[in-house]
Design goal:
Blueprint (H helix, E strand, L loop, with lengths): L4 E4 L1 H5 L8 H12 L3 E4 L5 H10 L5 E4 L4 E4 L5 E4 L4 H13 L3 E6 L2 E4 L4 H10 L4 E2 L3 H4 L6 E5 L3 H14 L4 E4 L5 E6 L4 H11 L7 E5 L5 H6 L2 E4 L5 H5 L3 E2 L7 H9 L5
Helix pairs in contact: 2-11
Length: 268
């Protein structure tokens, strides 16, 4: 079946280690657009942190952000989907973070809030281009459901322990995943890149079998498995690659462009 819609993750997929789009990648995406393919970005990033890349690629399609919790049309600012984390669950996560000395961040109205600035907020800003707003005690600050909650934990073993713990504790209440080897990410139950991608595909009357998805992280796995063709990057975790239909080259070797050129027989 012909592929009509292509969903692309940003970090460690479309973007290189400098968080930039390479000219070859831009050219491949624009070539597919000329062929009538629908190109959609699907990222764990905030909307404001993803929009510039959509604009650089000259996309006017819905932008899937916050791991699928927020979808907004870039052409007319229509909010297609927003399903946040319940404030009760957010308070519980804040309690867990405080008790276990974990750095936690809240995303509300496409703004990022933390208790205080530190080296982890600096690292996050270097990746996302978004500076956190320090507001003091987050328990006192929060008054509405956050779009997403994120914990940053650089230690691999500690992060793995808490991912396992939170997946068990919040089963049936929250989705717990990871986009980078720093993050533990929380969205509302049944929210994922796959659930958002399905909504976008239906908007364009595109069948599941006509969708291709490319990504590298655990947060991409749902859409890789949902799409008719799921493509893992060469730099993806081996377990993610093992569950994909195809494997592209490394994101630092223009892996997306290389795969798309080959699959769709793109030529100069």
């Amino acid at each position: 079946m012909e592929i009509k819609l292509i969903a692309l993750d940003l970090d460690d997929t479309l973007l290189n280690n400098e968080h930039q789009l390479e000219a070859r990648t831009i050219k491949a995406v624009k070539s597919l657009k000329k062929q009538g393919k629908i190109i959609v970005i699907a990222t764990g990033r905030m909307y404001c942190a993803a929009l510039a890349y959509a604009q650089e690629l000259e996309l006017t399609t819905p932008l899937i952000t916050y791991n699928g919790a927020y979808v907004q049309n870039t052409s007319n600012q229509e909010i297609i989907l927003h399903k946040p984390v319940a404030i009760e669950d957010a308070h519980d996560l804040l309690k867990e973070a405080k008790e276990n000395k974990l750095h936690i961040q809240l995303y509300i109205d496409d703004r990022l809030f933390v208790e205080k600035q530190n080296d982890l907020t600096d690292r996050y800003a270097a990746i996302s281009g978004v500076k956190a707003e320090a507001v003091g005690d987050l328990h006192d600050f929060i008054e509405q459901d956050p779009t997403k909650v994120l914990i940053i934990e650089p230690d691999h073993e500690r992060r793995k322990y808490y991912i396992d713990k939170f997946q068990k504790k919040y089963a049936g209440r929250l989705e717990v995943t990871s986009s980078k080897n720093l993050f533990i990410e929380f969205t509302a139950k049944d929210i994922s890149k796959a659930s958002a991608l399905q909504i976008v595909a239906e908007k364009y009357n595109v069948e599941r079998e006509e969708v291709m998805a490319l990504g590298d992280g655990w947060n991409d796995l749902t859409m890789l498995k949902w799409a008719g063709v799921g493509v893992a990057m060469g730099n993806a975790d081996p377990e993610v690659r093992a569950q994909a239909d195809e494997v592209a080259e490394d994101h630092n070797q223009a892996g997306v462009a290389s795969f798309l050129e080959r699959f769709f027989a793109l030529h100069d």
